[in-house]
Amino acid sequence: MDPRHVLFRAGGERFALPLDAVAEVVPPAATFARVPRTPSTVRGAMNVRGRVVAVVELAPLLGLPPTPGAAGQVLVLDRERRTLGILVDEVLGVEPVGEPDRAGEEPPVRGLAAARGAPVAVLDPGALAEAARRLFRGNGA
């Protein structure tokens, strides 16, 4: 059986992350605490059960336009004792996703696969976290 992934939308596109990379899905903070000297892609920080989580908007991180008026949801990634929130437009569910076709894709996109009978871009959680970390480097993080 194909591994299960969290399916979601961002910037008008469908994406998937392996289920084991997503610790939880939470609603975004009403207001984010701003992180100084970071680009607008960094939405800020929010409190998730007593932990401060930096939140990055996925669409502009991938070069896509943000979806105006999308309330969104935050995918909390917990990798190597570092927590990161990824703001997406909406979570579609958890589904099995086949092995992605890697032709012509650049990190953090691993490739395209099929889920629910439609194409989905499968993201590499490590490469996604590294792309987000680069946004903080000008801040001394």
Describe this structure in words.
This protein has 141 residues and is mainly beta. It has one domain (4-139): OB fold (Dihydrolipoamide Acetyltransferase, E2P) (Beta Barrel), CATH 2.40.50.180. Helix content is 11%, strand content 47%. It has two helices and ten strands; from the N terminus they run βββββαβββββα. The chain has helices at residues 58-61, 125-136; strands at residues 4-10, 13-18, 22-26, 42-48, 51-57, 73-79, 82-88, 90-96, 109-115, 118-123. The strands form two sheets. Strands 8-1-2-10-9 form a five-stranded mixed sheet.
List segments where confidence is low: pLDDT < 50 over at least 5 consecutive residues: none
The CATH topology turns out to be OB fold (Dihydrolipoamide Acetyltransferase, E2P)
> Gyration radius, to the nearest Å?
14 Å
Structural class by SSE content: mainly beta
DSSP strand count = 10
Beta percentage is over 45%
Largest sheet: 5 strands, mixed
Number of DSSP helical runs: 2
The ordered string of helix (H) and strand (E) elements is EEEEEHEEEEEH
Q: Would you tell me the overall average pLDDT? A: 90
Question: What is the end-to-end distance?
Answer: 40 Å
Short description:
The chain is mainly beta and 141 residues long. It has helices at 58-61, 125-136, and strands spanning 4-10, 13-18, 22-26, 42-48, 51-57, 73-79, 82-88, 90-96, 109-115, 118-123. The longest helix is centred in the last third of the chain and has 12 residues, at 125-136.
